[in-house]
Amino acid sequence: MPELPLERWINPEILAQPAYQVKISSHRIKLNQNESPWDWPQPLKEEVLRRLGQAAWNRYPELRPQGLKEKLAAGLSLSPEQLVLGKGSNEVLQAILRVALPPGEILCTLSPTFAIYRLLGEQQRARLVEVPLTADFQVNDKNLLAASKAARITILCNPNSPTGSLLPLELIERVARQTTGLVIVDEAYVDFSGVSALPILEHYPNLIITRTFSKAFALAGFRLGYALMHPQLAAQVHKGLLPFNIDVAAIIAAEVLLDHPEIVAERVRLIIRERDRLIARLDKMPGVTAWPSRANFFLLATPLGPRETFAQLAERGILVRDVSDYPGCAQVVRVTVGTPDENEALVQAVKELL
Ligand SMILES: *Cc1c(COP(=O)(O)O)cnc(C)c1O
Fold this sequence. Notes:
alpha/beta, Aspartate Aminotransferase, domain 1, Aspartate Aminotransferase, domain 2, 2 domains, seven-stranded mixed β-sheet, 14 helices, 13 strands, 40% helix, 15% strand, binds pyridoxal-5'-phosphate
């Protein structure tokens, strides 16, 4: 096949981007995407299926699912007008950048951080300003404050991925107070850290919080996320989304499962306990470093290096994420905390490969 003249048909910033990839090999233990290791109980899945069976599949879903928004907003003590729903929080993030980040303006992020921010920023033709974390993955306050000052949008992932490190709320507040632009706090892992910008949302009209159903809530398969912001901002961000973005299955699943916060809370408690136990055990092994984390994952370095660690664990059926191509992460893989049995298998596997 002849080479297509792609530079004539495709935007240059797209041609320059690598395609988003997740390396999946055959595995029995999946610790690579920070999902919940537990699916929802079967009776609740059946209740979702029952309601889905009663829904009209030939009709469009609600334009902006009001019942779901009211339920979510009530749980957060906010008004539904402050909420924007997306097909995953990444879709809301994309919509925010689409409506609020003109070409040439500054998008400020940490580095390393969630790779999607850069991809979306480049697609807006923004100027990326990345604030490097220290060698032990902590933020330098002064550098962040300086870089975010004139940024059109600053995105702070808290706790940060892939590092698991946490920004103090005071710092987020200072960023929001001194910047002329918007500040997005990506709280995909907030359940595991307990530190949220929600209490200060009403004080900073330039503050936006994004959250997802994909991690602690164990609903990655349905693709649902949301953002919280001032109602006047929300009205504009909706314009950056296509109509009917949330399908009827996701609406029903979320409505049913939001009635069972006790299930999520209990699992979060267990994951936090497992995380701290796992990090302590691994970090004690000779030549092994497991970084402290406030999320449901952590960074791990072994004497074998990241590629070989990934390969050796994969050989034992354990899939982790090789993040060694992230800035400052040349020595590490990222490991999601699993069930107690899965974590035990990981510990044994790491012992073996040493
Ligand atoms: C997983 C993740 C999300 C969630 O993405 P969805 O589109 O909601 O599945 C957002 N931000 C970060 C940092 C994540 O790791």
